[in-house]
Amino acid sequence: MDTERPKSGMSGSLSVARAGAVLVLFVVAVAVLVDVGTRPSVSSTPTPTPTTVPIPTGTSTSTTAAGAAAAASSTSTTAAASHKSAKSGGTTTTNAHHKGAATTTTTAPPSTISVVVANATSVNGLAAHYTSVIGAGGWKMLTPVDAATAEPTSAVYYSSGQQQAAASIATSIGVKPTEVVPLTTSAPVTGVTGTDVVVVIGQDLATTSAS
């Protein structure tokens, strides 16, 4: 009996040691878990950081202003082109938008424009008189003639491209603008083929000259 007591004491010491070791392991395990739980989570995919590029002040305004200027320039160019006369070989062509036709007039000097005056009244010397009056403007005057018929109203007839010259001559002698018309076979004058402007002196100008 005496030899068995020490064995009991040794067994008790081992149990206490084991309990202490278990306690230490438990404390260590708890500390590890706490440490792992308090660590920040790391994402496997990095989040890109947005990059801000500073925009110079006034860039947007300048671009808008430049665009507006370009549009205005285009509009101005288009408008100028629509109203611009086409010039070729000393001839100016103006589009008649409302009439759907074009009127062509020459800008040649008066000395190159041939003009003949025809007397369409019973008053002698009228054709010669108005030939002198019109010739003072520098026009190329031809020999005056008599008209085929008597006319109550004076008129100025023009060949193709000579409307401007005819209008100028009509103004200088007092012929109404409505009596400036194209030269056709209806004109009361014969033998004037190739003449640029034909002036027919009617009774209205005969009365004016007499007065």
Question: In a nutshell, what does this entry contain?
Answer:
The chain is an alpha/beta fold and 211 residues long.
Continuous helix count: 5
* Shape, per Cα inertia axes: rod-shaped
CATH T-level topology of the domain at 114-210:
Alpha-Beta Plaits
Which spans have pLDDT < 50 for at least 5 consecutive residues? 58-66, 75-102
What are its keywords?
3-stranded antiparallel β-sheet; alpha/beta; 6-stranded mixed β-sheet; rod-shaped; 9 strands; 211 residues; Alpha-Beta Plaits
Topology (elements, then pairings):
Blueprint: H1 5-37, H2 59-83, E1 86-88, E2 91-96, E3 101-106, E4 114-119, H3 126-135, E5 140-141, E6 145-146, E7 155-158, H4 163-173, E8 180-182, E9 197-201, H5 203-210
Parallel strand pairs: 4-5, 4-6, 4-9, 7-8
Antiparallel strand pairs: 1-2, 2-3, 7-9
Structure description:
- This protein has 211 residues and is of the alpha/beta class.
- It has a domain at 114-210: Alpha-Beta Plaits (2-Layer Sandwich), CATH 3.30.70.
- It is 41% helix and 18% strand.
- The protein has helices at residues 5-37, 59-83, 126-135, 163-173, 203-210; strands at residues 86-88, 91-96, 101-106, 114-119, 140-141, 145-146, 155-158, 180-182, 197-201.
- Strands 4, 5, 6, 7, 8 and 9 form a six-stranded mixed sheet that branches. Strands 1-2-3 form a three-stranded antiparallel sheet.
- 19% of the residues are buried.
